[in-house]
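Following up on my earlier thread - several people asked me to post the actual chain instead of describing it. Fair enough. Here it is, all 231 residues.
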Amino acid sequence: MADLKMTLIDHLEEFRRRMIVSFATILIAAAFCYSYAYRILRILTKPAGKITLVYLSPLEPFMVKFKIAIWAGVFLAMPILIYETLAFVAPALKNKEKKYVYPTIFLLCVLFVSGVVFGYNYIMPVGISWLFSQAGGMLKANLTASMYINFAALFLFAFGISFETPLVILLLVKLGVFTPKSLRENWRIAYMIILVFSAIATPDWSPVTMGIMALPMIILFELSVLLSRII
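Reply from S.P.:
Thanks for posting it. Predicted structure:
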């Protein structure tokens, strides 16, 4: 019983240490990005076309820069966050499974960046254009910087996470958690999870932007099932 308690304490201490490293990395990255906040904002507003963002309180310009810095810090620190997460669970893996940790970290980072780039270049402009079109010429856009940053950052972050679906599924199949047959038999559950995730991750909750986000995830899921059969 004493050994079990010590093991649990060790796990909690390891979890605490890795959380501290993760938050410290985000803060350091955010401090670096703070000076480039408005450059990042120009990049974020590009998919929306020529828009002018406004603020509603004297404090908001500072909060906008702070929010941009934090979000940028999270994106910039993603490799460390992924590493700390996998390093925490690595001791529970078998020796033959541990050799996949470092390649997995690299591939997860590549897929995350690919998802962000894809969402920024191809999905975000379409989604914003559709949302603006709903005004029908009767409403004038008066977007606050804070709300737009929330929309853009959450949208891109969700796309980055969604593009990691194939690798996560392949790893779960490789570890024996799922089989290609069970994935195929439970495709309805998988689709429902994707739709729920898309609804939560879509800032405006509109069916079009939710569908735009869900469609690539469904394609990636089907690709994952096919690859798991082949591998």
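The chain is about 80% helix and 0% strand. That should answer part of your original question.
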